[in-house]
Amino acid sequence: MSKQDFYQTLGIAKNSTDAEIKKAYRRLAMKHHPDRNPGNATSEQKFKEAKEAYEALSDPQKRSTYDQFGHAGMNSQSGMGGGFNPGDSFNDIFGDMFGDIFGSRRGQQRNTQRGSDLRYNLTLDLEQAVFGDTIKINIPSLTACSPCKGSGAKAGTSVATCQKCDGRGNVRVQQGFFTLQQTCPVCRGTGQSIPYPCADCNGSGRVQKNRTISIK
After folding, report:
1. What number does CATH give the domain 141-215?
2. Which CATH architecture has domain 6-94?
3. Apex CA 182: angle with CA 180 and CA 186, to 5°?
4. Structure confidence by residue, pLDDT tens digits, 156-210
5. Which residue range or ranges hold the CR-type domain (predicted)?
6. What is the pTM of this model?
């Protein structure tokens, strides 16, 4: 039995845009997803066919190969086979939904010191996952302390130069024949000291507040 044309499987034209391809797949995924059709072999097969068609047409290189050579060209490419996993395509098209919200893109190298990761657990129903939704969440965020304006010093006082390191942020330590340089243990490398810390932020200059963001 010959395989159905990928464009026909998704019910779209051959000149469809990437957005139209994704929209068509979402519609079919919503209709035939195994969670909505438990034990229905026909729906599972249609979901599998839609998944295969989407994986081919959503990739520019694979789509070009398919447009030129059809299914024969796809069979010659590695990585198109494998077991059927209903969750694979959801990861493909919905995996970027929260990927960059907290600046946690995998594999990215940073020269500056990064902050701590934030994790927020959300429960989405199938309709939200397929068609999308806008959800507001509250996340903890460090902001500048208002009373001390971020300085960490009590109102009416100021930040002073660290007397331990004379403002350098590091000190020299003699160990045997060697002189080592290490971070100042008093100011922790800032080169400054706070004689009278702000009571609101305990001298840190920052306070934690909840920030509301919208996720689409």
Report:
1. 2.10.230.10
2. Orthogonal Bundle (1.10)
3. 135
4. 898 999 988 998 989 988 888 888 888 998 888 888 888 899 998 988 888 988 8
5. 132-210
6. 0.40
